[in-house]
Write a structure and sequence with these properties.
Order of helices and strands of chain A: HHHEHHHHEHHHH
Structural class of chain B: mainly alpha
Number of domains of chain B: 2
Structural class of chain A: mainly alpha
Oligomer: heterodimer
Mean pLDDT of chain B: 85
CATH architecture of the largest domain in chain B: Orthogonal Bundle
CATH class of the largest domain in chain B: Mainly Alpha
Largest sheet of chain B: none
Distance between the termini of chain A: 128 Å
Distance between the termini of chain B: 35 Å
Largest sheet of chain A: 2 strands, antiparallel
Strand content of chain A: under 5%
Mean pLDDT of chain A: 63
Chain lengths: 231, 182
């Protein structure tokens, strides 16, 4: 004699895989009840925030504001009452004498002359390209204006990287470290006392920067003199 | 339905696509499951139109709650539970009351041998002849395999009521054999 559990188990097996025919149009009716668009898993404001962060990150890497001003070579020389003008007028003086004079000036200002002794002579002699680069803008500027002369030099491979940086970064640095150093050098050349320690404060790479600026300054001076001699 | 749908390599793939609200995937899932699920729903709701409405509501919930499916058990079983719940809600909504507690349980320990010989259609006709309340409890216990505790929780009744309703349903089925001349 069977019990109810056996009957129900048999019925369950029979009914478990039973399938009805689906009437035509049932899917269309269901589709009308389904939501039109998928739920937004990544809201638009999150996407905007992500884009903003990405842009900030890229700009940060693209313009690393390192304290090494080693490759900074742009400078503005006011022709009136500047050491450059003085140098330019003495075109008959030998080149080597001017180099020594510059070296002694820096020595007097208590700067460690790490590369000053080598750089002016070697860079100027080995880089005829630099002379051309320095000469062309000088002539153009001379014709256009007697007030300001801008000289741009490529002195080492780092410069190529620096050139692609946005202009505002260079401008910012020129105003801060580079500009101050140039000002102090000019002050030293004029024979006035200079407080170099003050410049060193807050600038870890000050020594590298000062050497670079000094090299640039001397090279520029030499180039200007050569150009004037040619003329 | 004659529409050709893209073949989804596996069930997880189909589920993933449905989660992304891929309409073709949803259609494929509907085609795969709708027949069986309509059969489940019809065991609780005998009215065809009402059963189809319940089926559609069930599928809307399936698609909406797919993120809750963790993949632990059978996917078909998960959908079946949603359909059963939807059918129970539909019964409640239509104010079909479950039978009240009865004190006397019908003790029919030995069913008629004929019940074992019935075919699929006869079984369905026999179950469909039960009053809604008895039919619901008989389906939940005997066909879906719910326990009395689960049934009590689902229908908000006591376990004793579930047991007594099942006994009553069995007695009615026994009597229906004669009435329906099966």
């Amino acid at each position: 004699m069977k019990d109810w559990n056996s009957v129900e188990e048999k019925w369950r097996e029979q009914l478990q895989n039973k399938s009805e025919d689906i009437p035509e149009g049932l899917w269309s009716r269901l589709e009308e009840r389904l939501p039109e668009k998928p739920a937004r898993r990544f809201p638009i404001y999150w996407a905007a925030a992500a884009m903003l962060l990405l842009a900030l990150g890229l700009s940060w890497n693209w313009n690393p504001a390192t304290e090494e001003g080693a490759a900074e070579v742009s400078r503005v020389i006011e022709k009136m009452n500047s050491p450059v003008e003085k140098a330019a007028t003495s075109v008959s003086e030998p080149l080597i004498i001017q180099t020594k004079a510059t070296e002694s000036t820096f020595a007097k200002a208590s700067i460690q002359p790490v590369s000053i002794e080598e750089s002016p002579a070697s860079v100027v002699v080995d880089s005829p390209k630099e002379e051309i680069v320095a000469t062309v803008p000088m002539i153009e500027k001379k014709e256009e204006s007697q007030e300001i002369l801008t000289v741009r030099l490529d002195i080492d491979p780092i410069m190529e990287e620096e050139e692609v940086k946005p202009a505002f970064a260079q401008q910012k640095r020129r105003k801060s470290l580079f500009g101050k150093i140039v000002g102090e050098i000019r002050q030293a050349l004029d024979g006035e006392p200079v407080n170099w320690q003050k410049l060193k404060e807050g600038n870890a790479s000050f020594e590298n920067s000062i050497h670079t600026v000094a090299n640039t300054y001397v090279k520029t001076e030499e180039n200007l003199k050569r150009t004037l001699q040619i003329q | 339905m004659s529409t050709r749908l893209p073949a989804f390599l596996s069930e997880p793939e189909l589920i993933d696509a449905c989660r992304k609200n891929n309409r073709q995937a949803q259609h494929a899932l509907f085609q795969k499951m709708a027949g069986k699920m309509l059969s489940v729903v019809k065991r609780y709701i005998t009215n065809t139109s009402e059963a189809e409405d319940t089926l559609m509501e069930g599928f809307v919930k399936v698609f909406a709650k797919l993120d809750q499916y963790q993949g632990g058990g059978s996917f078909e079983g998960w959908i079946r539970k949603i359909m059963v719940n939807e059918a129970l809600m539909s019964i409640r909504k239509n104010k079909n009351r479950y039978p009240l507690d009865i004190d006397v349980a019908y003790d029919i320990a030995h069913p008629d041998e004929t019940l074992m010989q019935l075919g699929l259609q006869e079984i369905e006709a026999l179950i469909a002849s039960l009053p809604t309340g008895y039919r619901t409890i008989f389906n939940l216990y005997a066909i879906e395999g719910y326990s009395h505790a689960e049934i009590a929780d689902l229908l908000d009744i006591s376990e004793g009521t579930s047991k007594s309703q099942l006994s009553r349903a069995r007695a009615i089925l026994q009597n229906q054999l004669i009435t329906l001349q099966l």
